[in-house]
Amino acid sequence: xxxxxxxxxxxxxxxxxxxxxxxxxxxxxxxxxxxxxxxxxxxxxxxxxxxxxxxxxxxxxxxxxxxxxxxxxxxxxxxxxxxxxxxxxxxxxxxxxxxxxxxxxxxxxxxxxxxxxxxxxxxxxxxxxxxxxxxxxxxxxxxxxxxxxxxxxxxxxxxxxxxxxxxxxxxxxxxxxxxxxxxxxxxxxxxxxxxxxxxxxxxxxxxxxxxxxxxxxxxxxxxxxxxxxxxxxxxxxxxxxxxx
Length: 244
Description:
The chain is mostly beta strands. Helix content is about 15%, strand content about 40%. The strands form three sheets. It has a seven-stranded antiparallel sheet with strand order 3-4-5-6-7-8-9. Strands 10-1-2-13-14-15 form a six-stranded antiparallel sheet, covered by helices on one side.
C-alpha cells in the first residue's frame, strides 16, 4: 500500500513516495546518508525491524522505490527474504542499467514475496514487478509517472488513484509547498481510497521525496514523518553530493 509520483523537468526530477503501513508498525528511522557494504553511499530512511528500506537514492543518482504486490500465488517461500533488502541490493550496483540487470537476471527472486521495485534516474524509469513466479519489466523516459498499490479493493482503488493522478497532470501538476497535490489528496468520504490514505488499521505513515538535479550534481531528500500535519513544510531534510 503505497503511492509513487514522478515529475521530470529541465531542472531535474521530483520523486515522491507515500508509505502506507499498518498503524501498529514500528517507527521508522529518518533519512540520512548511510554506506552500503561495497562502500557506495545512499540517502534514505530505514525500517528498523528488517534494516531495509522502501526508498533510497545512491551517490550515482539512482533512486529505488519498493512496493508490495498483492497477488494470489500457489506457493509461498519456505523462508522468505525481507523485501526491504531489495532497494539496497539494487542501489549497491551503482548505475541504473547494472541495477536493472542484477534484479532481473542475477537475483534469486523465488525467495521473495511479490513486489514492485521501481528504479529511477534522471533519464529513465524502470519497473520490475515480481509476481511470485514471473517478472514483468517495463521502462520509459516519460516526464510524468504514477505507480500505486493497495491490499484493499485493489483494482478499484488503483483505477481511482490513476484517474486522480491524470487529473493532477491535466491541471498543471500543482504543488502545495514541496509536496505534489496528488500525494496529499484525501477527499472526505474517500479516505480509504486516497493516496494520503486513512483506514481503521493502516494509514500513510510518512512521505519521502528526492529532488535530483538535471546535471546530476546533487540530490536533496525531504521527509514528512507526520502525515497528519502534511500542510507544514518538511521538518527533516538531507542532501548528498553525487559522484560520477
